[in-house]
């Protein structure tokens, strides 16, 4: 059995695509997923399954559309992958501290993608980098560092122009998801 983290794209943001987490948990449990838990309202779900990532992704997207009438992308990572992402941030502690000192909001984010974007698509995004808005890629993740605000960033506003869907989480959320996934992993060993 693998522990998965499902990151739903674009729910409960700005009053659109509303899904109550209790209803989402119940729906996913009815699919046969085990130990389902959610974290905050932005569509973060942890669960156990022995199915492969692609089958799960398709199944989750279809079920969410059938039950909640919302068509969205589901991005999946295993607990091991999420730990790797968190422990391999390409920004130094000094770079992050500098960005945080210039901002009243979160500075470090990760955009999760179902697969690597094309080089052409990524190049269109990379040209939007500035001293204040930076991105570094590692496989299916884009690490984003904002020295002011993600809300005012041209780089962030152009993420939908990638040739694959992306869902973004701030570092605080990523860290909490890692902790929850690790707790699930530890409890399954007992």
TrEMBL record:
Matches recorded under InterPro entries: DUF1697 (IPR012545)
Domain of life: Bacteria
Xref: Pfam families: DUF1697
SUPFAM superfamilies associated with the record: SP0830-like (SSF160379)
Protein name per its UniProtKB record: DUF1697 domain-containing protein
